[in-house]
């Protein structure tokens, strides 16, 4: 039994006439009559009564048609679902990210992706870069945003492009002597209580600070340790000291705080977007399209690695 047999039976029930049903189906009447007869033999029951007034379902036919209509509806829904999945409009996207990526660029990307692909289930996991790198290489994530390029087993197979460049900035409360200054020098930081983030992704930042302030610096040794950059900003607003962190913090202004550049300018590791080149699922392609649209420089880097979107889509 094929789907066409179900369509033939439903059309015959709707039109109550072999000729009219055949016309609606776009076939000749004799083949329709033969197909209905073959269907009745397969089912083992007469499905239609042929009368002078027309063709009408029997009790067996009425029961058969309930299931036939439901099956055809499921077949239609399956086709629609398959087409949506092929266009990246359904499915899931598993994204691992570090917390500070929520300052920039993830907010714009996630808002746009959620708006354009409401049928895609986003599975978002905040995790350290080392963990998300391993999860991505192991197939547990579809895409990851890390501090620096992924490292470890399998990382060499990943496609990685920078999505954010950072340098060190300072944040202080509005009552601090540095409030209102455009920049502060390293020498000024040596005599201030400092606030630093302690997350697993901060060793690279800490290493940069050691180079900047000096190995074994008393200022670093006595620094207040915060969980993440959001806490750094909050503590600075409370007047605890001078918060130090990535320039992404500028995307999260808070009343009662002031941001200063740190001189000399100290680059920090890039934010990096990574995914497996073997995973070219429609949902991942749709996400990368949103990244392209929101971050043109990133889009150019993706095109250099993968080819222009039209080629990737083909």
UniProtKB/TrEMBL annotation:
Keyword set includes Transcription? yes
> TM segments?
none
Known InterPro entries for this protein?
LysR_HTH_N (IPR000847), LysR_subst-bd (IPR005119), WH-like_DNA-bd_sf (IPR036388), WH_DNA-bd_sf (IPR036390)
SUPFAM superfamilies, per the entry: Periplasmic binding protein-like II, Winged helix' DNA-binding domain
| Keywords annotated in UniProt | DNA-binding, Transcription, Transcription regulation
* Any one Gene Ontology molecular-function term assigned to this protein's record: DNA binding
**Domain HTH lysR-type positions:** 1-58
Give the CDD domains listed for this entry.
PBP2_LTTR_aromatics_like
Q: Which GO terms describe its cellular component?
A: protein-DNA complex
List the Pfam families hit by this protein, alphabetically: HTH_1 (PF00126), LysR_substrate (PF03466)
Query: Belongs to which family?
Result: Belongs to the LysR transcriptional regulatory family.
Q: What protein am I looking at?
A: LysR family transcriptional regulator
User: Which organism encodes this protein?
Assistant: Streptomyces albidoflavus
């Amino acid at each position: 039994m094929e789907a066409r047999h179900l369509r033939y039976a439903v059309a015959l029930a709707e039109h109550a006439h072999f000729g009219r049903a055949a016309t609606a189906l776009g076939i000749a009447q004799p083949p329709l009559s033969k197909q209905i007869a073959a269907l009745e033999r397969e089912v083992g029951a007469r499905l239609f009564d042929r009368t002078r007034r027309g063709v009408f379902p029997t009790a067996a036919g009425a029961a058969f048609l309930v299931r036939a209509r439901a099956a055809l509806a499921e077949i239609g829904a399956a086709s629609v679902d398959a087409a949506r999945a092929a266009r990246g409009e359904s499915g899931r996207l598993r994204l691992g990210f570090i917390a500070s990526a929520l300052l920039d660029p993830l907010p714009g990307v996630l808002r746009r992706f959620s708006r354009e692909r409401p049928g895609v289930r986003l599975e978002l996991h905040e995790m350290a870069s080392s963990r998300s790198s391993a999860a991505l290489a192991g197939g547990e994530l579809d895409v990851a945003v890390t501090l620096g390029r992924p490292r470890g087993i399998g990382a060499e197979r990943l496609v990685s492009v920078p999505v954010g460049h950072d340098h060190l900035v300072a944040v202080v409360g509005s009552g601090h002597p540095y409030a209102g200054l455009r920049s502060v020098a390293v020498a000024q930081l040596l005599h201030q209580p400092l606030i630093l983030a302690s997350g697993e992704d901060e060793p690279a930042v800490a290493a940069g600070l050691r180079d900047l302030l000096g190995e074994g610096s008393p200022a670093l040794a006595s620094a207040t340790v915060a969980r993440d950059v959001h806490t750094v900003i909050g503590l600075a607003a409370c007047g605890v000291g001078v918060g130090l962190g990535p320039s992404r913090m500028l995307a999260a202004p808070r009343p009662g705080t002031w941001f200063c550049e740190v001189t000399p300018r100290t680059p920090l590791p890039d934010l990096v977007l990574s995914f497996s080149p073997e995973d070219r699922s429609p949902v991942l392609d749709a996400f990368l399209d949103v990244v392209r649209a929101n971050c043109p420089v990133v889009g150019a880097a993706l095109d250099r690695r993968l080819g222009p979107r039209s080629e990737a889509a083909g």
